[in-house]
């Protein structure tokens, strides 16, 4: 038994040693290349914003942990961030609201993640660049040609396909979003979909979807990594790019193309109100006494039990808060077609059968089990603590009506399917 534990530990250390040497080789190659654009180094830029090397290394250690790497990788993560200026990035806006870019870039006191995103060699980003019209089209064409096979393509927004794609035309030649996306994806080393619109079609694809808006993975002919969320957290965006810079591969993905390091746990599993859920303490109406006391938001529609994301850890607004902390339930924005499948947002789920891309396999299958286990009038499918609370008449909420309680079971299996995508 002892020997077998030792053997396991040896093989784990061997695995990480190999991974580290893979990362070091990759970083060496990148270091030998020239920056795509000249300018101050990352550390100079960070210092200019009052960020010390010590803060930067703390961030690198946290990011290594977020990427499920041992903390001994912090040096490699820091070096990868410093070498982000070696890999060109082309960022397209298709049918969307620009909320993802806004969320990433428009903060009055930028986080380390946003400062690092600023440092990336962004060759083309319509919201950020000064050029417009002919000039911007020329920049896009030149960048795609000059960096063919080497650039990361990031896409925000869905692709309208109805009427020959004419619901979205861009630039002086009125090229459709579909045309531009296909062309840009052809020459990309890796394709990253940013936000609910690009990953699953977003609100544009909500029923009845008059423009036949599609997620980008249904349009391009290569692996797409989905950074789901509306908007997604900047740490998930930066972490995914860093993973690519570190290893030259996409991270392991779940069955919906999301990086497992960020989307392998349900919001419910990491929620600060989880103790309230287990104790059977539920907000019944917004503004009631339970709401003031920070009770669980399930009965006012929280979709945390069905949603895979790390919002509870990364948070938003300079990592200060997130919807559940602010008193509104999760709306499930990182799940496929959430506009249709999670609505109505302020009512608890009852029965729910997902129509996932793999026919209910993967992450959705996990969520299905929860949905199917929901309580109706008297059926009970709830965690042990909550059952105890109910049977003891101890289901603490001022306006509670036990007979109508609707709470999910706590079956907890992570059935996300791991796939390793390796772009050229
Ligand atoms: S995912 Fe949400 S925030 Fe991002 S562009 Fe789409 S609607 Fe806007
Ligand atoms: S139901 Fe929502 S508020 Fe309640 S514990 Fe789960 S995630 Fe948190």
Average the pLDDT over all residues and give the rounded result: 82
Number of discrete domains: 2
What is the name of the CATH class of the largest domain? Alpha Beta
Name the shape in a single word: globular
Q: Give the topology string: H per helix, E per strand.
A: HHHHEHHEHEEEEHEHEEHEHHHHHHHHHE
Looking at this structure, what is the CATH superfamily of the largest domain? Answer: NADH:ubiquinone oxidoreductase-like, 20kDa subunit
Please give the share of residues in helix.
Answer: 25-40%
Q: What molecules are bound to this protein?
A: iron/sulfur cluster
Radius of gyration: 23 Å
* Number of DSSP-assigned strands: 11
State the major sheet: 5 strands, parallel
GO biological process, one term: anaerobic respiration
GO molecular function, one term: ferredoxin hydrogenase activity
Subcellular location: Cell envelope
Family: Belongs to the [NiFe]/[NiFeSe] hydrogenase small subunit family.
Describe the structure in your own words.
Keywords: 3Fe-4S, 4Fe-4S, Iron, Iron-sulfur, Metal-binding, Oxidoreductase, Signal. [4Fe-4S] cluster 2 binds at residues 268, 271, 296, 302. GO terms for molecular function: 3 iron, 4 sulfur cluster binding; 4 iron, 4 sulfur cluster binding; electron transfer activity; ferredoxin hydrogenase activity; hydrogen:quinone oxidoreductase activity; metal ion binding. Its main location: other. Residues 407-424 have a biased composition (Polar residues). By secondary structure, the chain is an alpha/beta fold. It has 2 domains: 23-262, NADH:ubiquinone oxidoreductase-like, 20kDa subunit (Rossmann fold); 265-378, Cytochrome-c3 Hydrogenase, Chain A, domain 2 (Irregular). 39% of the residues lie in helices and 9% in strands. It has 19 helices and 11 strands. It has helices at 2-32, 42-48, 53-66, 74-82, 99-105, 112-119, 133-146, 177-186, 195-200, 234-247, 260-263, 267-270, 274-278, 289-292, 311-314, 323-326, 338-341, 363-372, 384-391; strands spanning 88-93, 121-125, 151-156, 159-160, 169-170, 175-176, 188-194, 213-214, 224-227, 252-253, 419-420. It has a 5-stranded parallel beta sheet with strand order 2-1-3-7-9, with helices on both faces. Helix 3 packs across helix 4 and helix 4 crosses helix 10. The longest helix is centred in the first third of the chain and has 31 residues, at 2-32. The model is unreliable at 353-424 (pLDDT under 50). Bound molecules: iron/sulfur cluster (2 copies). One iron/sulfur cluster binds at residues 267-268, 271, 273-274, 277, 296-298, 302, 304-305, 324, 329-330. One iron/sulfur cluster binds at residues 96-97, 99-100, 156-157, 195-197, 202-203, 230-231.
């Amino acid at each position: 038994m002892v020997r077998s534990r030792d053997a396991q530990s040896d093989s784990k250390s061997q695995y990480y040693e190999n991974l580290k040497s893979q990362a070091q080789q990759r970083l060496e190659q990148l270091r030998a290349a020239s920056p795509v654009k000249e300018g101050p180094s990352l550390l100079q830029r960070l210092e200019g914003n009052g960020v010390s090397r010590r803060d930067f290394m703390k961030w690198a250690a946290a990011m290594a942990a977020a990427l499920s790497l041992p903390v001994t990788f912090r040096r490699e993560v820091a070096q990868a961030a410093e070498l982000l200026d070696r890999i060109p990035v082309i960022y397209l806006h298709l049918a969307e609201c620009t909320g993802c870019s806004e969320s990433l870039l428009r903060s009055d006191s930028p986080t380390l993640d946003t400062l690092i995103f600023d440092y990336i060699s962004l060759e083309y980003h319509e919201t950020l660049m000064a050029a417009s019209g002919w000039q911007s089209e020329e920049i896009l064409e030149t960048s795609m040609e000059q960096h063919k096979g080497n650039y990361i393509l990031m896409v925000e927004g869905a692709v309208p396909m109805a009427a020959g794609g004419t619901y979205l035309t861009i630039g002086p030649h009125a090229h459709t979003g579909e045309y531009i996306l296909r062309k840009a994806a052809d020459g990309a080393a890796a394709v990253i979909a940013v936000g609910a619109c690009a990953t699953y079609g977003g609100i544009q694809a909500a029923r009845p979807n008059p423009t036949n808006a599609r997620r980008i993975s249904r349009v391009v002919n290569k692996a797409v990594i989905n950074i789901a969320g509306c908007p997604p957290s900047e740490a998930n965006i930066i972490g995914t790019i860093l993973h690519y810079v570190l290893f030259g591969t996409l991270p392991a993905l779940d069955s919906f193309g999301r990086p497992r390091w960020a989307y392998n746990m349900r919001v419910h599993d990491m929620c600060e109100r989880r103790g309230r859920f287990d104790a059977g303490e539920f907000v019944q109406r917004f503004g009631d006494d339970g709401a003031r006391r920070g009770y669980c938001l399930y009965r006012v529609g929280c979709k945390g039990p069905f949603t895979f994301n790390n919002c509870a850890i990364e948070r938003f607004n300079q990592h200060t808060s997130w919807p559940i902390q602010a008193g509104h339930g999760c709306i499930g924005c990182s799940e496929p077609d959430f506009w249709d499948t999670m609505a109505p947002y302020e009512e608890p789920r009852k029965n729910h059968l997902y129509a996932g891309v793999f026919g209910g396999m993967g992450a959705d299958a996990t969520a299905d089990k929860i949905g199917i286990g929901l309580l109706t009038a008297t059926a009970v499918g709830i965690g042990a603590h909550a059952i105890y609370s109910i049977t003891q008449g101890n289901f603490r909420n001022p306006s509670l009506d036990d007979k109508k309680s609707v709470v999910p079971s706590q079956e907890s299996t992570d059935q996300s399917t791991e796939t390793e995508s390796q772009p050229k």
